[in-house]
């Protein structure tokens, strides 16, 4: 059944109460609502624990979508106990991991501002993220790092605006990704906006992000790789070169 994905409206919600609506044969758990982000758009799904009434916990290995985006499946580690349908659980997201992913995902958006080329691929990670651009020219990674850190230190607000599926279809140019289209069918699409009145950036994205660019912290471009005649892969890491944090 469709789930109320609470993280779509509150990226900082790390715990909530939920009722089990289904338990799959492979152990996957569906809930009536969740604060766990499901793998999508290059960002890994959340891990964490589901706490039962007796205080025992079910550890999760991943969170993923089912056959459609309105189904979210919480996948326990092997040999974890199974809850009963109708059971009430308290959800606890692994917050340090999620927050690093939020910082990284926001950094990827900032990179797309500094490098305003069509995006051909991306993957968000805890220690390193990558963004691929459709570009042929070379560019200095230290110069990109300097521009990224300027945006971070200017501490621009990061926030969501919602538009309808129809509004997105009517304005296709707001999509930066060349190969992946934002998911339609839920009735609305979230725009991640950076800067007052979207002065820095605005693009459709269903991932989780920090609320101001300063939270990203120190980042740098560790490497720029040539992945074809007109494709460059940028690798973002936390910290400064030679001093990852």
UniProtKB/TrEMBL annotation:
Gene3D superfamilies: 2.40.30.130, Threonyl-trna Synthetase, Chain A, domain 2. It comes from the Bacteria. This is Alanine--tRNA ligase. It comes from Rhizobium leguminosarum. PANTHER family: ALANYL-TRNA EDITING PROTEIN (PTHR43462), ALANYL-TRNA EDITING PROTEIN AARSD1 (PTHR43462:SF1). Residues 1-245 form the Alanyl-transfer RNA synthetases family profile domain. It is found in: Cytoplasm. Keywords: Metal-binding, Zinc. SUPFAM superfamilies: ThrRS/AlaRS common domain, Translation proteins. It holds the Pfam family tRNA_SAD. Its cofactor is Zn(2+). One of its GO terms (biological process) is alanyl-tRNA aminoacylation. GO terms for cellular component: cytoplasm. GO terms for molecular function: alanine-tRNA ligase activity; aminoacyl-tRNA deacylase activity; ATP binding; metal ion binding; nucleic acid binding.
